[in-house]
Amino acid sequence: MKPLAITLGDPAGIGAEVVEKALQGLDVPVRLFGAVDGPIRYGEISADYGRIALHAIDDALDAIARGECSALVTAPIHKQSIALAGCPFPGHTELLADRAGLKRYAHDYAMYFDSPSLRTVLLSVHEPLHRAIESIKAEDIVALAKLMTREYAKLYGNAPRIGVAAVNPHAGEGGRFGDEEETIARGVAMANGIAISGPHPADTLFLAAREGKYDVVMAMYHDQALIPVKTLDFARSVNVTIGLPYLRVSVDHGTAFDIAGKGIADAAPMRYAIEWTARHAEKFAS
To answer: Which of 4, 189, 218, 240 stands the most exposed, by the fewest C-beta atoms within 10 Å?
Structure first.
């Protein structure tokens, strides 16, 4: 297989450390982007480090576009550092989508988490909770269901059974606890030809998915998805940006400035991300 492109993330974080540890004894061809010579100011928010992280991403994308690398694995970047460096995007997901010309979240691209215990796709990402709930639209649910079905088939060869989470307790209890479920139900009904159901109460839906009733949970907002995923499988979960013309995967943790440079960062999540990407890169490209 062609090498994986691995970006080392923010130099002040744990990216380089966990990548180096993860690659020890791992028989996977890789190319690294973003190495820094000289002393590092660990834990420091810096425009310079933001620029290094951004340039590494651009160099890795160029290598993929030239056919030199097969897929992208990203170590964490720091949102404030890339903002200081002039990046208008809050993170990798939006940045990579823009680089690929993808404009509409849920329609063109989305954030998807995959782990042995649970798989979930997010209807909204980096939004305040009140805004995420206010922005729930039936047409976005339909679009995300179509996108997830297409991308899941690339990875696993079959269409997924999608369970859609409610946003209110007990799925709104017939309107007593909110009426957002009416919109969610309308979106589910509009998703013709897709194996989708809901809205289901979120407090039992993730359990049902873990037990095999659903392949993917569609979560209405960021933490609704990330709390169960990280609780069940923190070291064995990956963040995948679906919709891109290449496979992009990352760990589901941040720069960990508080332990950067101390040599104690756990590389298990990065090792899993690299191994997972290596397993799926070739069939995704095909």
So the answer is: 189
Q: Which residues contact 193 (CB under 8 A, 6 or more apart)?
A: none
Integer angstrom CA distances of residue 61 from 87, 89, 136, 247: 16, 17, 32, 11
| For residue 172, pLDDT beyond 80 | no
CB 127 within 8 A of CB 135: yes
CA distances 165 to 153, 203, 281, Å, are 21, 9, 29
Across the strands, what pairs with 49?
none
Of the candidates 209, 213, 256, 214, the residue with the CA atom closest to the CA atom of residue 233: 209
Nearest alpha carbon to residue 92 among 66, 124, 68, 126: 126
Amino acid in the structure at residue 130: H
Q: Are residues 50 and 11 in contact, defined by beta-carbon separation less than 8 angstroms?
A: no
CA separation for the pair 80, 240 (Å, rounded): 22
pLDDT digits (tens, 9 = 90+) for 228-285: 999 999 999 999 999 999 999 999 899 999 999 999 999 999 999 999 999 999 876 5
% of the chain beyond a pLDDT of 90: 92
What is the per-residue pLDDT for 187?
A: 98
Q: What DSSP line would sit under 190-233, residue for residue?
A: H-TTS-EEEEE-HHHHHHHHHTTS-SEEEESSHHHHHHHHHHHH
**HEC string for 26-60:** CCCCEEEECCCCCCCCCCCCCHHHHHHHHHHHHHH
Q: Considering the entire predicted model, what is its pTM?
A: 0.94
Cβ pair 180, 133 in contact under 8 A: yes
Tell me which amino acid residue 82 is: I
